[in-house]
Amino acid sequence: TQGLPTKVIGQNLVYYEKTDSTNSLAKKLANEGAEEGTVVVAEEQSGGRGRLNRSFLSPFAQGLWFSLILRPPFLPMEVSKMTLLAAVAITHALRQQGLECGIKWPNDILVHDKKIVGILTELNASMEKINYLIMGIGINTGITKKMLPRDLKKTVTSFAMENIPVNRTKLLRDVFCDLERYYFEAEKEGFSPILEEWKKLSCMLGKEVEVVMPDRTFSGVAFDLDDSGNLLVRTDSGVERVLAGDVRVRPI
Ligand code: BTN
């Protein structure tokens, strides 16, 4: 972290060659009182976790696999907006590297419909207060088609697969800086400018989507976010408000 131009994020950096999941490790450290901005980074995860109980492929040195411990002064119900904030910050950092990417609600980052970044936010809170928030981020840098299991070949990409050279250390620094910039902005000014930015960076608004919930599925056109960061989808029978959580949204 020498010379890292951030105030908080990454100033306490915990590095592992290999761990099961940086999110799990970060949770443990947070329970032991780790300070705000602590980052756990690993070269390889043997049990990388994704949203909706899925696993997340994280082979040795082929990506940035890391988790941030935050203790934001927000209400627990604002957590989904923190996830949108992370997607905005990372998209910004990736575009600076020359990668044409956009955000798929709530927080996948895609290049030409293929996923290059996944974000898994985990919360420890009471009704009134966030104790801590773990923000787990996986960015595929060196992954090649050969490394991917067959079911992921058509849906996953990386800097290498997009032929964009990348320096992992520099990218990690840029991501820390952008995350911190937006985080401080949210603390000062609230989330509305960030939600507006999200809309600009989204590759989903205006498109026909299918929403898969545990109990039902419907389709419509995703057209906006509301003030809480929920996705608004226009269907034949009216407007549906889609909350993050057990939801899968896919373009059709
Ligand atoms: C998703 O796409 O569903 C979210 C994937 C999140 C992956 C990252 S990699 C670092 C951190 N540790 C984990 O076990 N998961 C997150």
Automatic annotation (TrEMBL):
Group of enzyme by EC: ligase
The UniProt record lists the keyword Repressor: yes
Binding site for biotin: 21-23, 45, 49-51, 115
Keyword Magnesium: no
Any single biological process term in GO: protein lipoylation
Catalyzed reactions: biotin + L-lysyl-[protein] + ATP = N(6)-biotinyl-L-lysyl-[protein] + AMP + diphosphate + H(+)
Residues of the BPL/LPL catalytic domain: 1-187
GO MF assignments: ATP binding; biotin--[biotin carboxyl-carrier protein] ligase activity; DNA binding; transferase activity
Keywords: ATP-binding, Biotin, DNA-binding, Ligase, Nucleotide-binding, Repressor, Transcription, Transcription regulation
An annotated GO cellular component: cytoplasm
EC numbers: 6.3.4.15
Function description: Acts both as a biotin--[acetyl-CoA-carboxylase] ligase and a repressor.
Family: Belongs to the biotin--protein ligase family.
Name used for this protein in its record: Bifunctional ligase/repressor BirA
Organism annotation: Megasphaera hexanoica
Lineage: Bacteria, Bacillati, Bacillota, Negativicutes, Veillonellales
Gene: birA
Part of the whole protein covered: 70 to 321 of 323
